[in-house]
Amino acid sequence: LRLDPDFLPARNNLAVLLSATGRSSEAEKLLRETLDLARRQRARAAEAAAELPGVKQQRAETTDANRAGELDVRIAALEMRNREVRELEHLIGQLHFSLGMLAAENPRRLDEAEKELAAAAALLPLRPRVRYNWGLALNQLGRTAEAEEQLKQALAMVPDETDFLYALATFYAEHGRWRDALPYAEQLLRRRPDWPDASQLLQRIRRALRE
């Protein structure tokens, strides 16, 4: 960072390290600064990349070999800017996720955590761990239908993930939906037969179904 304070991956890695060592306030401050910087870099890259369709059109229409060569170079540079936009969007999603996880540590900041995790999920739609944590936050806020959807989407991406199986089984049990909870608890115990929590959860669900 001393050599290049605008190098976003280094800033993000430092924030993760600060959080892991209990320096949450410093981590959050750095994450927010990095998010602002990433957004500005993305805006500049997107502005440049917006020229790409027009330059491609010029390339298709030109019959001058020298001009065609110049346009090919320009197209390559703009396509690189396009890739930069996608990379920055991915990083921005990671930053929102990190901010959401930090906020979720404080029960009074659940609304804020949910908003950050929702933003992360929009930018990282194929990251199941993002949807899982978003679902947990939604459930804590009482938004059960949305929570169920996100937890199920997370599990659909990684069908044997024990955290996701446990989350869905306990989610349904918490809301008295014992029959819905049962298959997830059974699958969880098959995956983790040595885990006492899995066995106890399944016993609790079966007992509730017999009553």
Structural account:
The mean pLDDT is 93. The protein folds into 2 domains: 124 residues; 80 residues, Tetratricopeptide repeat domain (Serine Threonine Protein Phosphatase 5, Tetratricopeptide repeat, Alpha Horseshoe), CATH 1.25.40.10. The longest helix is centred in the middle third of the chain and has 40 residues. The protein has 10 helices and no strands. The protein has 211 residues and is mostly helical. α2 runs antiparallel to α4 and α3 runs antiparallel to α4. Helices cover 82% and strands 0% of the residues.
**Integer average pLDDT:** 93
Percentage of helical residues? over 70%
Give the structural class.
mainly alpha
Low-confidence stretches: none
Note the main sheet.
none
Q: What does the secondary structure layout of this molecule look like, with pairings?
A:
Blueprint: H1 8-20, H2 24-49, H3 52-61, H4 65-104, H5 110-123, H6 128-140, H7 144-157, H8 162-174, H9 178-191, H10 196-210
Notable features of this structure?
211 residues; mainly alpha; 10 helices; elongated
Sum this structure up briefly.
It is built from 10 helices and no strands.
